[in-house]
Structure formats: C-alpha cells, structure tokens
Write a structure and sequence with these properties.
This protein is mostly helical. The chain has 16 helices and no strands. The protein has one domain. The relative contact order is 0.14.
Length: about 425
C-alpha cells in the first residue's frame, strides 16, 4: 500500500479543494435554483421555502457534523498508514446516519405543522411551509448517508468519487424541479419531491461505494458510541449555528413576507459562498489530519498557513462579484419589487462580511482536521450568545429590520475571526498521533 500524500503544496491542496468545491457548491446551488423556481410562484411560496428550508437545515447540520467528524477520524488513521481502519470509520458513521436520518424524517413528517408555525409570520405561509416540509423531510436518511460517505472518502483523500456522486444527484434534481413545479403542475410540492430525489439517490450511491470498498459492514456499538462522544463538541457548535439562523429567520419573518423572502435570498447566497470557500477547509481537514496522524506537526502548520491565505483571497474575489451583482442578482429569484427593496438593505452587509468569512471557514477546517473542536465549540457558543442573538432580538424589539438582523451576523463572524486567528498563532492545536 502506498503511503498517503502529505505534502502541503498548492497543487495538492488544489487537487483536494477543487473537487470539494463542486461537492460543497452542488447542494446550495441546487437550493438557489429551487429558490428561483419557487420564487416565480409568488412571495408566499418563496417565504414557505425559506421557513421549510430553515427547518431542514437541521438535517444539514447533522450531516455536516457527521462529515467533519468522520473526516478528522479517518484522516488521522489514513495518515498513520491504516486505510482499512479509516474506511471502518465510514462504516460506523453510515450506521449512525441511517439511525439519525430515520428519526429526523419521522419528526419532520409528524411535527411539520407546529414547527412551521413557530417560524412563520402568518398562517398562509405556515400552512405552505408545513406541506413542503412533510415531503422534504423524507430525504433526511439519504442526506446523512451522503454526509458520512463524503466524510470517510475525504479522510482517505479520495476527492473524485464524491464529486461524481453529488454532482449527478443534484443535476438530476435541478432538472426535475422546474418540470415538476410548472409543466407537471405540482407547484411547491414539486420542489419538495425534487429535494427528496437528490438526497435519496446521493445517499444510495455513497452506500453502494462503501459496500464495494469493504466486506466488514456490521455495526460496532462501541465505535459508534465513540463517534457520538467525540462529536459532542461539534454538536454543540452546530447547535449554536442553528439557534442563530433559526432565530434570524424567525425575526425576519416578523418584518413581513417581503423581508423574509429577501432574507432567504441573501442567506442562501451566504451559505453558497461560505460552503464554496470551505473547499480549501475540506482539503485542510484531510491534510492536517493526515499530517498529525503521521506525527508531522510542521506539515500541519504549513497547511494552516496556506489555506488561510487561500481562503482570504478567494473571499475577496467573491465579495467583488457580489458587489457587482447587487442590482441584478435579486431579480433572478423573484420579480417582486418589495423583496428587491429589502435585499438592497442586506447587500452591503453581505459583501462586507465575505472576506472575514473566508478566513474563518479556512481556519475552521484546520482546527476540525486537528481535532481541536472543543475550542471551536466554546468560541462559537460565546460568539452566538454575546454577538448574534442579542443583536437580532434587539433588532426585533426596536424594529430595526433586516439591517439589524445582519448586524448580528456581522458580530458573530467578527468574534469568530478574532478568536480563530489567536488560536492559529498558538501551538496548542497541533497535537500529533493517530487519535486525539
């Protein structure tokens, strides 16, 4: 067996980052297509997708947690020269994905009405969002299986198979969405069916790849339990994100249908940019984990330096593109002038925060690859409690509109930016060994 590649050259980072970019961008790009298709049905369906999509982001949160945790564990074992043990992490993560996915699907189907009612600003939007969610929730098992598959494949530095699986599933769904919504005439229901189709097909393809990779497929409760325990800090960190974004959507909804529609457009563009910028962070998770698993702390620090620079440069490029499209992009999603007016309030915040976000997401990847998730947990929770949440609820109390909501996002991002830079400059994150 050939040893894993651990040289943190720009070429090696690009070989891992570019396929990861397509994988990361595929889902939010599909959501943007979905938002544009539904947006032309009217402001209520657009607001319904905003509410339902925000609730479904809980499943995406679990998926991100699973992918990142599996990548770090698999990468360290791969770096220590044990590919079989790295793949075994993927087997156990897949069992965990099936269990959690079924629970999330059941909750989504049975509690769609109350969940949508908590976030929606009016009964019509709540009813439409609940109908969308009852169908979309069925995609949760496939979504989490795909996340587990991405995790172990990234850990063994296999960037090509996730690329083709995710791209194929999402392209099919992007074709189905406008067909089901318009010519077939299913409207908002067609959007939900297209979502489920992409997630189920993707999960099935990742599971097939795992079965071809290894015959040792039995669940091992002790390993699954270890993954759950070691993922505790990522879970808390993810919970802080979800509380922030659910609260932001709830507050935006209280400012009216146009406000929540504009917030949905800007927030999905933010997620798209953030996940695209996270491509170098995915490379960092794999390379940092492998380097530390092989006992090479200097290599891990070199990866950290390179991806931080790359993240900052890429984010500036995104910000320039976003600024240039300020008067055009909202029109891609809806013809409603009220939504356009609200989007104009959000846009300066969106553009200004992107460069900081690029560095934040890159360093997130470094520390996740290093297994330094306890620090990430604490930093994220404090940033949420002291920055994001007070700002957006004050925005609601004083009727500050979407500008106040996005000021909270700004405080959240800048607090994490400062904390991550300080941690990056310290030696405490670069702990070597096959496990941490």
């Amino acid at each position: 067996m050939s040893p894993p590649q651990r040289t943190a050259t720009a070429r090696r980072i690009a070989e891992l980052a570019l396929p990861a970019l397509v994988v990361l961008a595929a889902e939010p790009l599909y959501v943007l297509v979905d938002t544009a298709v539904v947006g032309h049905l009217g402001s209520v369906p657009l607001a319904a997708v905003a509410i339902g999509g925000t609730i479904m982001s809980l499943a995406v949160w679990f998926g991100t947690l699973m992918a990142y945790g599996t990548t770090g564990r698999a990468a360290r074992r791969f770096g220590a020269g044990d590919r079989a043990a790295a793949v075994a992490e993927g087997v156990q993560a897949s069992w965990l994905a099936i269990g959690v996915g079924l629970i999330l699907a059941l909750v989504g189907v049975t509690a769609a009405g109350p969940l949508a009612g908590l976030l929606a600003g009016d009964p019509e939007t709540a009813e439409a969002a609940a109908g969308w969610l009852r169908i979309a929730a069925l995609g949760a098992p496939g979504l989490l299986l795909a996340a587990a598959g991405n995790g172990w494949m990234r850990g063994v530095q296999d960037a090509r198979r996730p690329l083709w699986i995710v791209l194929g599933a999402n392209v099919l769904s992007a074709i189905l969405c406008p067909i089901l919504v318009y010519p077939v005439g299913l409207g908002l229901t067609g959007s939900a069916i297209a979502n489920v189709t992409a997630q189920t097909i993707g999960g099935a393809l990742f599971l097939t790849a795992l079965i071809r990779e290894t015959r040792e497929l039995r669940p091992i409760p002790s390993v699954i339990a270890s993954q759950v325990v070691l993922g505790r800090d990522l879970l808390i960190r993810g919970a802080a994100f979800q509380v922030c974004f659910l609260s932001a959507t709830a507050v935006a909804a209280r400012f009216g249908v146009a406000a929540v529609g504009a917030h949905q457009i800007a927030l999905q563009l933010w997620f798209f940019a953030a996940l695209a910028l996270d491509a170098v962070a995915i490379a960092a998770q794999s390379l940092v984990g492998a380097a530390l698993g092989a006992g090479d702390a200097d290599e891990a620090r070199d990866v950290a330096r390179r991806v931080t620079l790359a993240g900052g440069v890429a984010a500036v490029a995104f910000a320039v593109l976003a600024a240039a499209g300020a008067s055009v992009v909202p029109g891609w999603f809806t013809p409603d002038p009220a939504v356009h007016a609200q989007a104009a309030i959000v846009w300066p915040w969106f553009v200004a925060l992107l460069p900081f976000a690029g560095i934040v997401y890159a360093l997130d990847g470094v520390l996740i690859g290093a297994g330094d998730v306890a620090f990430l947990r604490t930093l994220t929770v404090l940033s949420a409690l002291l920055g994001f949440l007070p700002a957006i609820w004050l925005a609601y109390a004083f009727d500050l509109g979407l500008g106040g909501v996005w000021a909270g996002l700004g405080l959240f991002t800048l607090a994490r930016f400062v904390g991550l830079l300080l941690r990056w400059r310290s030696p405490r994150w670069a702990v070597t060994g096959a496990t941490r």
